[in-house]
């Protein structure tokens, strides 16, 4: 097996990579992580990026599921020391057991893949609880991996990492609601739409799309109430940076009155850098 440094194509998955491009929130989170962890954190984000990309890059559902299954198998191969993808070669060192005998489990990787499969199958979340669970399975699982890569393996750190990741994922869903709707992806739970006399397909129509900000407002208020007031100091700085950036993003979305139907509202790179730099070590 080629060493991670010499595997063809592996260099493109080191920090910064396509999952942590300059200006993104993950770019700044990883930038302020310990130098020796940056490539590993970027590679973990890269796995999620590649798996999520299936939703937008593969139009045939059958082919998409085959590609998703390939990535599931690739994680198992990588855990067994036989990676095939250049990204997996970078992940290899991250997946090796630490001095304490701990290693990254397959579970969070597979949870990210399962979240993609749910969307491929158009399994709409029936209620808000299911929508939150979907975000925790996705970004919450990545945050768990990021925490574990920092050496956090106790549930007292892993549970908050998943919670904050799921919350950040829900904020992102608000930000991307207009785009997700155009791509036939879930934006609101079925019961919320039914109460408004709508289906997902009806909301996506030109006749009803203008109602999206009004329907998102209760979701945004609920996220404000559920927001972690302060991320635990026991969590890695990278996760605390993510939490603070997404809290600022939620404020910006509310300030715009959730005008996300035809635009993507975000923070400037300079503001993200300012937030990251002010997050205590």
TrEMBL record:
Gene3D superfamilies: Farnesyl Diphosphate Synthase (1.10.600.10). InterPro entries: Isoprenoid_synthase_dom_sf, Squ/phyt_synthse. Pfam families: SQS_PSY. This is Squalene/phytoene synthase family protein. It comes from Thiohalocapsa halophila.
